[in-house]
Amino acid sequence: MTAKQGEPDPRAVRDAGAVLSAEAARFASFGWMRGTSGNVSLVLSRDPLRLAVTVSARDKGELTGADVVVVDVKGSAVPIDGAARPASAPSAPSAEAALHAHIASVTGAGAVVHVHTVAAVAAGWHWPSGVELEGIEMLKGIGVPAEGVRVTIPVIPNSQDMRILGERFERARRPQVPAAIVASHGLYAWGSDLEQARHHTEIVEWLLELALAAV
Amino acid sequence: MTAKQGEPDPRAVRDAGAVLSAEAARFASFGWMRGTSGNVSLVLSRDPLRLAVTVSARDKGELTGADVVVVDVKGSAVPIDGAARPASAPSAPSAEAALHAHIASVTGAGAVVHVHTVAAVAAGWHWPSGVELEGIEMLKGIGVPAEGVRVTIPVIPNSQDMRILGERFERARRPQVPAAIVASHGLYAWGSDLEQARHHTEIVEWLLELALAAV
Amino acid sequence: MTAKQGEPDPRAVRDAGAVLSAEAARFASFGWMRGTSGNVSLVLSRDPLRLAVTVSARDKGELTGADVVVVDVKGSAVPIDGAARPASAPSAPSAEAALHAHIASVTGAGAVVHVHTVAAVAAGWHWPSGVELEGIEMLKGIGVPAEGVRVTIPVIPNSQDMRILGERFERARRPQVPAAIVASHGLYAWGSDLEQARHHTEIVEWLLELALAAV
Amino acid sequence: MTAKQGEPDPRAVRDAGAVLSAEAARFASFGWMRGTSGNVSLVLSRDPLRLAVTVSARDKGELTGADVVVVDVKGSAVPIDGAARPASAPSAPSAEAALHAHIASVTGAGAVVHVHTVAAVAAGWHWPSGVELEGIEMLKGIGVPAEGVRVTIPVIPNSQDMRILGERFERARRPQVPAAIVASHGLYAWGSDLEQARHHTEIVEWLLELALAAV
Predict the structure, then answer these.
(1) Beta-strand runs (E) in chain A
(2) Which of B135, B174, D116, D212 falls between 20 and 30 A from D29, CA-CA?
(3) What are the pLDDT digits (tens) for B70-101?
(4) Is the separation of the CB atoms in D156 and D168 below 8 Å?
(5) CA distances for D23 relative to A152, A169, D118, angstroms
(6) How big is the A-D interface in CB pairs under 8 Å?
(7) Is A137 left (phi over 0), alpha (psi -120 to 50) or beta?
(8) B76 by DSSP, 3-state: which?
(9) Which of C199, C99, C186, C91 is nearest to C142 (CA)?
(10) In chain C, which residues have their Cβ closer than 8 Å to the Cβ of B205?
(11) Do residue B35 and residue A141 have CB atoms under 8 angstroms apart?
(12) Which of A118, A182, A185 lies nearest to residue D206, judging by beta carbons?
C-alpha cells in the first residue's frame, strides 16, 4: 500500500468537514451529543480506506469545517496531502474513530454516526442480549419489512480497547440492521451516505424510545 | 372523467409545495417525522379529486417547494399540466398517498397530516380497540364538547395494502373525530384546511401523551 | 362608569399586542399552546378594568400585534377608541377572557397566562384536591419560602360557564400561590407584570413536572 | 489585601458578561433555568478571588453582557474599577453567588454553572445519600474511567444560609466529581473554564436522566 498515492486531497477533506460539522450540530441540537460526546464520519476512499471523522474533545454543536481528521482502517490519523494544520490546533481523532473505520470496512457503509442517547443506554440495560422488534412500520426506514420479520438491534458489551470492540461488533452485528448499541455507552448507526446514516440513527433511536415507552 | 381538463395548473402545485414543505419542516422539528417518515397533503380540486402530497424518501425537514407530487383518488401520480419535472429529480408519491386521498375523499377534508409519533404507536398498543376520551377541555379543539361526550380515537390495524387500509379506515372512523391511529405505525389527522389539520394533529397527539401519562 | 372616558387608546393596545403575541409565541414554542389553545393577557387600566388578551381560534405561535382584543371585567369585548378593525379580521375574545379578567380583578395581577400543559392536567388528575408542595427551592420563585411553609396549587373543577369557573376560582385560590390548575383543562398563572406572570407559569409547570416525576 | 490593586478592569468584566449571558441563554433554552433560576460564573482573578456572576432575578434567557456582577470569595459585590453602573440598573448578585465563589475557591475551578433541572431534584430525592454510578462511558467526560471505578454524585441538604451550604459542600464533595446536587434545589457543576463547566453540567444531567430512566 502506497499511502501517498491514495491520500484524499485537501479539498475533499474540507468538503467533508463542512457537512460533518453541520451534521454533528444537528445531532447536538437534539441533546444526543452532550458534553463532547459522539462523532460522525464519512468515507473518503475505499482503497485504501480513508474516513473523515469529527475531532475528539470538542463541543459537537460548535465544530467548524476544519474540525475533522482523516483516519485509516485502524483509526490512526493520516496526514492530509499538502494541508498542514496550524500547530496551534492539533486535532486528534477520538479512539472511537477506529470503530467508525471498522464499521465502514466491515459493512461497506459510506457514513457512520455515533451518538450518546439516554434511550440507547437504557435499552441496552433493559435488553442486554439485544432489542427485538417486529411488525412496526418504522422498521421499513432501516430496510426491514413492516410485517413478518423479527429483527434484533444488537447490544455489544463496551470496551476501551477498540480492537476488542471491533471484534465484538463483527460477531454481534446483523446484516439486516444498520445499527448497534454499545452497552452503557451509546448508539452506532450507518448508511450508504451521510443522509442515510442520519435517517438510520433517527429511526433506531425512535424505535428504542418506543420500546422503552411500552415497557 | 377527462383528466386533462381537470388538472391543477403548475402554479397551484407550486403554491401547495411551498406551504406543504414548510408545514412538514414544522412537524419534523417536533421529532414527529424521524427518518423520512410522515407526509402532508393538500386538496387541489374535488372533481376530479387531486391532492398535492409531499414526496417519499426525502428528509421532511429539508423539502423544497418542488418536493410535492399530485395524486388522484387512488394515490397514483398525475402529471402536472405543462410542468415537466427534470429527469434528474423523479419524485414519487409514497404508497401512503393513497390513504391521504382516501381520507380526503371519504371525510371531505381539505388537508391531511400523517406523522410518526412515539405516543401514537404506544397508545395504539395500550388501547388496541381505540383510545377513549371524555371531559377534557382540549377535546373542543377537535370539535368535541368538553363535557358529557365520550369519543374514541380509532385504532386501525396496519397494512401494506392501501386498499385494505382504506377499507379499515372507513369501517373504523368516527365522524366526530378528525384523526385515526394506524397501529404500530403512526397518526393521521385532517381538517378543512392545512391549518386546521395541523391543529387537529397537535391536539390529538397532546391527548395521547396525556392519556399515556395518566396510565 | 363612563366607558368612553376610560377606554385605552389604540397605541397602548398596539403595544400590548406586540408583547402579548411575542409572549404567546414563546409559550407555543414549548408545546404549551398546542392547537389554538391558551391565551395571554395584560391589564391596560384598573378603573375601569380593561385587559388586552390574545384572540381566540388562532395559532398562538403565529399571532401578530393586531391579534388582541380588549375586554372588560366580564370578558366582553370593548371597542378600541378610534381603532376600527378591518371587517375581514373580526377578532373575538375567547370565553376564557372572562376568567383572565376575573383573576386580574380578584388578585390585582397585571398580567395573566393560560397554558394547556400535559403536566397540569395530569397533576390535576393525580391530586384532585390540590398539589401540595413544601421545601423546594424553586418555590421562592413564586414568593414562597423554601423551608417550613406548605403550599397547595389549587385544582378547580372545569366548567364551560365562566361565571361558575370564576366563583370556583375565588373559593379555591390561595393568596400565597399565583397559579391554579383547572382540572382536565390547563394552568393559569399571573403576576404583577407580564414577565412575572411568565416566570410564575414556568415555575409552577416545573414544580408539577417534578411532582409527577417523583410519583 | 488591598482591594483596589487587585480589582478586575471593566473590560475583563464586560468580556465575561458577554460569554456568561450567552452561556446562560444556552442553558435557559434547555429549560434548565425556568423562572429566573440558575446562574453562571467565571473566575476573573485568583488572588484576591474575583468572580463575574450573572445577576439575580432576571430572565436567564434574556441577559445582556451588562447583567453580571463581580463578587469576592464571600459572594459580596465588589465595585468594578471605574465602571460606574447607571443607577437605574442596580444589579445584585444572587445569594447563591457565595456558593459559586466557595466552589471556585475550594476546587480551583475557573467557572461554575448552577441549573435547576427536574432530574437533579428528582435524583436527589431518590438517592438522598448520593447518586452512585459505575461503568458508564459518559463518565469519561467528567474525568472518571468508564470501567472499574464507582463514583458518587454527592447530594447536599439545601440551606438558605450560604455559609452552612458551603460547609456542607466541603464535607460532601468528591474530588473525582466536578458536580454536586443540592437537594430539593438543583445542580452545581464546575470546570477549569466555562466550556468544561458546561460539558460537566451536560454530562452529569445526562447521567441523572439515565439513572432515573433505569429506576
Answers:
(1) 39-46, 49-54, 68-71, 111-115, 131-134, 150-153, 155-156, 179-182, 186-191
(2) D212
(3) 999 999 999 886 544 544 445 778 899 999 99
(4) yes
(5) 41, 38, 20
(6) 57
(7) alpha
(8) coil
(9) C199
(10) 34
(11) yes
(12) A118
